[in-house]
């Protein structure tokens, strides 16, 4: 029984890996379940054993790579004694580091931003994932609220405007890098932009 569970887990992982590559290369709409099964070395029936349909497969794929950031934010939020600005800056840099270092992270980000063409019921699937993203952003809002309560936010920044701006900055960096990776270095340029952002939102105390 243990071996069967391990084999089932491996099949599920192989299907996700195959879908990730094919979705990135061809787009979600132009990739069939038969092609995913063939690339994973299994059958279409195996897909339906693990996933309801292509949309469920896509959602699981996105969550597999993108949820770790929400986990990072949850840990920062749970530590009431930590400096929220330091934590947010570190987690933002980690996002860019993961993308720069992990080809799989890059493919999944590209699928989400560039390869999710409109197909039947895709709106509902992406709405589910957007709710996950919004949940992460609300964590960021709460962390900026904590920073504001400590007197760390400079005027005219509010916790929400800071959270929305940080999300827009990171998304813009990722999108620009995916479109022209030779023109933008995520570590050098991305870290510099993050440093400038956080320097601009933190209140400067008079000496």
TrEMBL record:
Gene3D superfamilies assigned: Tetracycline Repressor, domain 2
GO molecular function: DNA-binding transcription factor activity; transcription cis-regulatory region binding
UniProt cross-references to PROSITE patterns, sorted A to Z: HTH_TETR_2
InterPro entries (UniProt xref): Homeodomain-like_sf, HTH-type_TetR-like_transc_reg, HTH_TetR, Tet_transcr_reg_TetR-rel_C_sf, Tscrpt_reg_MAATS_C
Residues annotated to bind DNA: 32-51
Keywords of the record: DNA-binding, Repressor, Transcription, Transcription regulation
Domain named HTH tetR-type: residues: 9-69
Superkingdom of the source species: Bacteria
UniProt cross-references to PANTHER family, sorted A to Z: HTH-TYPE TRANSCRIPTIONAL REGULATOR ACRR, HTH-TYPE TRANSCRIPTIONAL REGULATOR RUTR
Record protein name field: Toluene efflux pump ttgABC operon repressor
